[in-house]
Fold:
Amino acid sequence: MGNTRPLGTASARTATSWWCSHCGMGLAAAPSGSSVRCAFCHRVTRVDIERPRGVTRALAGTASPPRPPPASAAGLEIPAGYPVVRGNKRALLVGVSYRGTAYELKGTVNDVKEMRRLLCSRFGFPGDCILELTENESEPSRVPTRQSLLLAMRWLVEGSRSGDSLVFHFSGHGVQKLDMNDDEVDGDDEALCPVDFERSGKILDDEINGTIVRPLGRGVKLHAIVDTCHSGTILDLPYLCRLSRTGYWQWENHCRPSGMSNRTNGGLAISISGCSDDQKSADASGFPESSSIGAMTDSFIKAVEAEPGTTYGRLLSAMRARIRDGQGSRRLPGRLGSFVRWMIPSSGVQEPQLCSSEMFDIYRKPFLL
Structure:
């Protein structure tokens, strides 16, 4: 699998990141512009390219990208009980169970527990710099409602600096909605479902991109591990890497047809998701050694633990093999079965997806959180 096609590099950005002065959503302002209209609340925000609001001018000879303004500046107050970040690693782990509904999920809290264990034991994340949102939490601000989830995502990126490593993990339901602003290659938006989505609404990929992708400054790295249905392009990143029918991992350009920016402000954003946009995700009940846990979360953790220092390409391949072995209904034994499951496409078996804000050689770049 080492014969991947040549991989290019992302083109330079020509827009500056800003935030709507009315709703707090991320904006992209052209260098020559003096105002920009928000795609969500449709209000106009005036911008000053020379001196961004709330950001002091960089020292002469340095290039310091603007940081997200405090949540309070956008009319949002980050709860006092959220972790005070120390060091250069922080994580947001979300598990939504939808208790008492017809679509209740059983393993999402376990997903959060296992991800915390992995981050602390394998990648040195301080336990007190990890924010968890589940329905088991006693603090209302840590229950994964729409408002809490948006505040927590703002907490994840706020004040981030060069050298910081950020992780966003979401386990729950994901859906597709008809794209209304012509910014999707396939004509559908992807969305996360918070616990109160029927009352307060879903969180569209556009909103996720504006909250945790576009604000990322130079030298900041974000990994999103998303275990939901329809999650392939859930961060609206411009490049998607997936397995072709000929068996090669290759990049596809998913830049927005409308021309709106979906890039970072110089940082690196990578998402690893449980399935493509047109697929559904599953739990790992087919895996004999697994308790109630998402198939994607289980395959991701097992692949990382099996091969420390792995590359993104090997990680994807290991995840794919484990998911197909666990979900394949008609299994052949031994190496023959493994080969057939690898080579024959199956719409009934979810395929892990990799998206990024820039293209890279997935078999040379080490995976490191």
Q: What stands out?
A: Residues 67-356 form a domain with the Rossmann fold fold (CATH 3.40.50.12660).
